[in-house]
Specification:
rod-shaped, alpha+beta
C-alpha cells in the first residue's frame, strides 16, 4: 500500500535544486510503503514496461554491492549497508518491488534506516540528498539498461523487416524472370505448332512422282505416315506445353502482383519501425 507524501517530495526536490542538481530527467519520487515492519517513508523508483523480476534482480545486486548481507525474498533487507555520503554509520535498507495488475510501471520502494531513524522529510539534509542521489544514479543505470534493451529489440525487428523485404525482392525478381522465360516458351510453342501444321500440310499433298511405281508408292506412303505421326506428336506436345505455360503465366502474374503488395506492406512496416527505433534512440539519449 503506497501513499504519496507531498511535503517529502517538495523537500527532496528543494534539496536537489539547492545542491545544484541539473540532471532532473530521472529522479525518485517520495512516498510511503507498507513493509512487514510497518509503514515507512520511501524513495520510489518507477520503471516503465519492466518486469518485476528484472527490477528485483537489479536492486538486489545493488544492495549486495553496499551491504554486508542481503536477506529476504519478496521484501529485501540490506544489513550493515554503507552509503558514506548519507551517513558515516551503516544503514539498513528495505526494498520491495510491486507492479499492479495491468499496470504499466514497476516500482521499487526503498526505505533507509539510519541511527536517527528512517530517512524522511524531517531527516538531516545530508541524508535526504545523499539517499535521493543514490537512488537516482541507479535509476539512471537501470533505465538506460531497459531503454538499450528496448532499442536492441526494435533494431532487431527493423533488421528482420529489411531482410524480409530483400527476400521479397529476390522472390519478385525470380518470378519476373520465370514469367519472361515462360512467355518465351509460349512463343516457341506457337512457332513449333505452326511448323508442325505446315509440315503436315506438305505431307498431305499428293506426290505424283511416287505414283508410277506401286512399290515405290507403298514405301513412300509408309514414310509419309511415319513423318505425319512424328509431326502430329510434335503438334500435340506444343499445344499441351502452350496450355500449361499459359496457366503458369497467369499464376506468375498473380504472384508478382501479390509480391508487389507484400513489398509495399513491408516497406510501410519498415518505415514505421524506423520511426519506433528513432524514438527509442531519443528516449535512451534523454536518460541522464
Amino acid at each position: 500500500m503506497r501513499c504519496a507524501s507531498a511535503p517529502f517530495l517538495a523537500a527532496a526536490l528543494a534539496l536537489l535544486l539547492a545542491a545544484g542538481q541539473t540532471r532532473a530527467q530521472v529522479a525518485p519520487s517520495m512516498g510511503a510503503f507498507q513493509f512487514s515492519t510497518g509503514v515507512h517513508p520511501t524513495f520510489d523508483a518507477a520503471f516503465e514496461d519492466a518486469s518485476t523480476r528484472e527490477v528485483e534482480r537489479f536492486w538486489q545486486n545493488e544492495l549486495k554491492a553496499i551491504s554486508m548481507k542481503v536477506s529476504g525474498r519478496k521484501e529485501l533487507t540490506g544489513h550493515a549497508a554503507r552509503i558514506p555520503a548519507a551517513s558515516p554509520d551503516t544503514l539498513q535498507v528495505l526494498l520491495a518491488v510491486e507492479k499492479p495488475k495491468g499496470g504499466l510501471y514497476t516500482t521499487a520502494h526503498i526505505a533507509f534506516l539510519t541511527t536517527s531513524g528512517y530517512v524522511s522529510p524531517d531527516s538531516r539534509e545530508r541524508e535526504v540528498a545523499a539517499c535521493t542521489e543514490w537512488v537516482r544514479q541507479r535509476m539512471v543505470t537501470l533505465q538506460r539498461q531497459l531503454a538499450q534493451a528496448a532499442l536492441d529489440r526494435g533494431q532487431r525487428q527493423l533488421d528482420d523487416n529489411n531482410r524480409q523485404l530483400d527476400q521479397l525482392k529476390r522472390e519478385g525478381q525470380r518470378a519476373q524472370d520465370n514469367l519472361r522465360r515462360s512467355q518465351q516458351r509460349i512463343e516457341q510453342a506457337v512457332l513449333d505448332s505452326a511448323e508442325a501444321a505446315r509440315q503436315l500440310r506438305q505431307l498431305s499433298a499428293p506426290d505424283s512422282a511416287s505414283q508410277a511405281d506401286s512399290a515405290t508408292a507403298a514405301l513412300r506412303n509408309k514414310q509419309v505416315r511415319k513423318e505425319q505421326a512424328t509431326w502430329q506428336d510434335r503438334a500435340k506436345r506444343a499445344a499441351y506445353a502452350k496450355q500449361g505455360l499459359e496457366k503458369r503465366v497467369k499464376d506468375l502474374q498473380w504472384a508478382i502482383r501479390k509480391n508487389g503488395e507484400d513489398q509495399a506492406g513491408k516497406q510501410a512496416a519498415i518505415e514505421r519501425q524506423q520511426a519506433v527505433v528513432k524514438q527509442l534512440q531519443e528516449k535512451l539519449q534523454a536518460i541522464h
